[in-house]
Amino acid sequence: MMETTAGNKKQYAFWKPEKFRSIRFHLTVEAIGWLCGTTIDDNGKEISNFILFNDLLARMTVAAGESKGFRRPQHLTAGQFQYSEIALAAEWNMGRKKTRNLLETMERMGLLTVRHSRTASVAAFACVDGWTDDGGNDMDNPSYHSISPYQAD
């Protein structure tokens, strides 16, 4: 994330998805409510949870391959991304613990699935059914997990 200024107001430039024409999501009502909320960064600035989610979505791979820009790159399938909590915390201007809590919340809401190992952290977009790429090709997300319907006790 880069910091820019517009007049007297600081603005943060988050990543934006650019590899898609459209994305098919399956979201719970709880996830939609959370995405409509905000998080406070270390400077006391409110950031939309949707913007943070969108920032992660921009990192998603659309084809299987090796991740780039990491000391220990991982082989990723479409729908996944490799990340560093320390790097995300710095980009989002918040502590590592808050960043980890945000990722855990996204996982609990069914937006992501997260896998940590000694060598890397990889997340998959469990709520993304698929997408249409820039060439107009429909792609299914191998990382998609259907949301189970509510079951009464």
Notes on the structure:
- With 153 residues, the chain is of the alpha+beta class.
- Helices cover 24% and strands 31% of the residues.
- The protein has helices at 29-35, 49-57, 85-92, 96-108, and strands at 2-6, 9-13, 20-25, 38-40, 46-48, 65-66, 75-76, 80-83, 113-116, 121-124, 128-133, 138-140.
- The strands form five sheets. Strands 3-11-12 form a three-stranded antiparallel β-sheet, with no helix packed on it.
- Helix 3 (85-92) packs across helix 4 (96-108).
Summed up:
This protein is of the alpha+beta class and 153 residues long.
Shape: globular
- The whole-number mean of residue pLDDT values reads 85
Tally of DSSP helical segments: 4
Residues in helix, %: 10-25%
* Major sheet description: 3 strands, antiparallel
- The N- and C-terminal alpha carbons lie at a distance of 45 Å
Unreliable residue stretches: 1-9, 148-153
How would you write the strand order of the largest sheet? 3-11-12
Radius of gyration: 16 Å
Structural class: alpha+beta
* Overall number of strands: 12
Order of helices and strands: EEEHEEHEEEHHEEEE
Strand content: 25-35%
